[in-house]
Specification:
heterodimer, A: 349 residues, alpha+beta, five-stranded antiparallel sheet, 10 helices, disordered C terminus, B: 340 residues, mainly beta, OB fold (Dihydrolipoamide Acetyltransferase, E2P), 3 helices
């Protein structure tokens, strides 16, 4: 029984090796098409002087293609004997050389990816990558002097072949850093820390928010005096006047295009002391201001007193504390975005 | 022909006192919204390190030297430093401290336990990190970014082999990072600062994609740069991912700044807790500017193990020395924690 399983395992290696070689060649070819050059390659070509990289990369591609096709063509009765063994020995030599090159690459260029599957193989060469190459070399050696492949006799044999193939694929997947890279690309969502969001959109979202409406009565200028970004938050500072003191209102706006979480604080412009939000001035009527009379709200504590922990806020888990306050002058309608004004203002900063 | 640019300054460099005030204000305003940062780890303390707290590096010109005393001057002030048998020196190579000559520009690292005693001296050390833009038989012209002047590099015959092992492509378009002796017009390269990336700068591989939340602690390589329009003893770090919306002069107009590795966006004045993984020293330092060239490198620091990623911070000379880095080695394995 064991000898049967070993023989079937050897048979599985031919299509598997061929598929790996043709996939590697296709991935490298796709990279060449994307980059437009052979000499910007990854992997063992980095071991060679610049002038030799192009022919070496070309040789590797051609060798993979030839071995991949050759294994398929000579798998059956067509290549019985020496032609089949020649292709299989060549495949084994290719993987053995690749294993040695990867070991050398790991030592001399630890930051370089193996380039085995083009753009998918950008992570530095690891022990897994070397082990995978050695495993494929061993698989190629196991196919030497093997009789021609034949279709499986019956469902049991086909099932065993499929089982062996699946087991080997699992092992190869475990040894392939490219698999993780591929899965990341499939389900990629850019973290907010890396997300680019124009400042004008931050300003637009801020001017539409209830936080802005509640604090607008204190703000004395349209132009922010400072604006900067840190991780997932953009900070916008406006000059303000509170209880006859020069002050600044600082807004922290979460970097999300729609309905971002916003926090605010009032700071003394001279001492930097955090101030309590003052009682709001008498309601005024007129364009842009609410005419609805609401009971005045006592002096508000700074936002941080009811602020959730920064980590939770940063994760975007908690709701934005942007509920409009009572008795606070509020815009009847959110002000329209002003990209023509906001963008130049920010560039000045 | 040779064009050495000297008219650019970073839009938001931290050297000027005005910018330092604004940076301090940003920290205060951020704390007003979110509260002060949590307690720091290791030997780091909340708040930025002040030059007085890290007196381990003194930079200046050697005024006088004897077998036991070194006098180093900076402007009008002179400092006397004792030389002991344990002190070592470097000027293009290992050197007896008494071999340092008056007139040399030196960086002196003071003994950790004994103030006023020299631990190590680097004389006339310089570094050029950038993109080769011109090559002739005698020198290389290197672009270090739009905010720094272009640099000339000469490679003496005796150092050529050592440098070309790590930098096989000394051709325009490729990156270079060499450490050597600062001469009046050029840097005389002696040591490779890292290994050369295999790609030219106009064919940067696409950055790897990150999913989920970016970790607050990122390990990589911390390097140093020569001061240019920075006050002596400035403590801080250039960071490779400043917010592109800030319109930094290093960024291409209307384009996405090239980068090899994705890093979370920060601004000038953001806090970085930087830990030297080789010595355990750590300090909170402010981001003082953009590390435009560092973001093009995909090298690894191998001082104590291989760093898991490339350059995460480009420290000022004083910061690098204060955190226990050896200048001639070019880097140390570092972990930066953001937002502390």
């Amino acid at each position: 029984m064991l000898s049967i399983v070993v023989a079937e395992a050897r048979e599985v290696q031919i299509p598997l090796l061929s598929a790996v070689l043709l996939a590697a060649c296709a991935a490298k070819f796709a990279r060449i098409l994307r980059v437009g050059s052979l000499d910007a390659g990854l992997g063992p070509t980095a071991l060679f002087p610049m002038g030799l990289r192009r022919p070496v990369a070309l040789t590797i591609c051609i060798a993979e293609l030839c071995c991949g096709i050759g294994l398929l063509v000579t798998a059956g009765p067509l290549g019985r004997g020496d032609p089949a063994d020649t292709v299989r020995i060549a495949t084994a030599v290719l993987f053995l050389v690749a294993t040695c090159a990867l070991i050398e690459l790991r030592t001399s260029h630890p930051e370089t990816g193996c380039g085995c599957f083009g753009d998918f193989s950008t992570s530095p060469v690891s022990g897994r990558t070397v082990a995978r190459s050695a495993l494929l070399a061993a698989a190629a050696l196991a196919t030497i002097d093997m009789p021609p492949l034949h279709p499986p006799h019956g469902g049991a044999e086909a099932g065993r072949l499929l089982g062996i193939l699946a087991a080997e694929l699992v092992v190869l997947a475990a040894l392939s850093p490219e698999l993780g890279e591929g899965l990341v690309r499939l389900g990629y969502s850019e973290p907010c820390e890396l997300r680019r969001l124009p400042a004008v959109r931050t300003l637009t979202a801020l001017r539409r928010s209830s936080q802005w409406r509640r604090r607008a009565g204190l703000i004395t200028a349209d132009v922010p005096v400072d604006m900067w970004r840190e991780l997932c938050w953009r900070f916008v500072v406006f000059p303000a006047r509170a209880a006859d003191r020069e002050a600044e209102v600082v807004f922290a706006v979460y970097l999300r295009p729609h309905r971002p979480a916003i926090h605010a604080a009032l700071v003394d412009a001279v001492t930097g002391e955090v101030l309590a939000w003052p009682e709001l001035p008498a309601r005024r009527a007129g364009p842009g201001w609410s005419t609805e009379v609401k009971p005045a709200k006592p002096a508000l504590a700074p936002d941080r007193s009811r602020r959730p922990a920064p980590d939770l806020v940063g994760s975007g888990v908690l709701a934005a504390p942007t509920d409009p306050g009572r008795g606070i002058p509020a815009y009847r309608d959110p002000p329209a975005p002003r990209p023509d004004k906001d963008l130049p203002l920010y560039r000045v900063l | 022909m040779l064009e050495v640019r000297r008219d650019h300054r970073c839009c938001d460099r931290f050297a000027a006192a005005e910018t330092a005030v604004r940076t301090s204000r940003r920290r205060l305003l951020k704390d007003a919204v979110f509260g002060p940062p949590d307690g720091a780890a290791d030997d780091a303390v909340p708040g930025f390190a002040e030059p007085d707290e890290l007196p381990r590096a003194i930079t200046g010109t050697i005024r006088d030297i004897s077998p036991h005393v070194l006098v180093i001057g900076n402007g009008d002030s002179d400092t006397r430093i004792a030389l002991t048998a344990g002190a070592t020196a470097w000027r293009g190579g290992p050197l007896d401290p008494a071999g340092v000559q008056p007139g040399d520009h030196a960086v002196v690292r003071l003994h950790r336990a004994q103030r006023g005693v020299a631990d190590r001296i680097w004389a006339n050390i310089g570094r050029v990190t950038g993109t080769i833009i011109e090559r002739t038989a005698g020198w290389l012209l290197v672009d270090e970014g739009r905010t720094r002047p272009r640099q000339m590099v000469t490679i003496p015959r005796r150092s050529k082999g050592r440098i070309q092992v790590r930098f096989p492509n000394l051709e325009p378009g490729y990156l270079i990072d060499v450490i050597g002796l600062r001469r009046s017009e050029a840097l005389e390269a002696r040591i490779p600062g890292t290994s050369q990336p295999a790609y030219p700068v106009d064919r940067l591989p696409p950055p790897a994609m990150l999913a989920g939340r970016v970790p607050s602690a990122i390990s990589g390589s911390a390097t140093w740069h020569e001061p240019f329009q920075e006050p002596p003893g400035l403590l801080g770090a250039l960071y490779p991912a400043l917010d592109p919306e800030a319109g930094c002069a290093e960024d291409p107009v209307g384009g996405i700044p090239p980068r090899f590795a994705p890093m979370p966006y920060l601004a000038v004045g953001s806090r970085l807790l930087i830990r030297n993984d080789c010595t355990g020293s750590s300090r909170t330092l402010p981001v003082t500017g953009c590390a435009a060239i560092s973001r093009l490198f995909n090298d690894r620091c191998v001082i104590c193990g291989t760093s898991p990623r490339g350059r995460v911070a480009d420290l000022t000379l004083a910061s690098f020395v204060a955190l226990g880095g050896e200048l001639e080695r070019g880097c140390f394995n570092a972990t930066i924690t953001i937002g502390r």
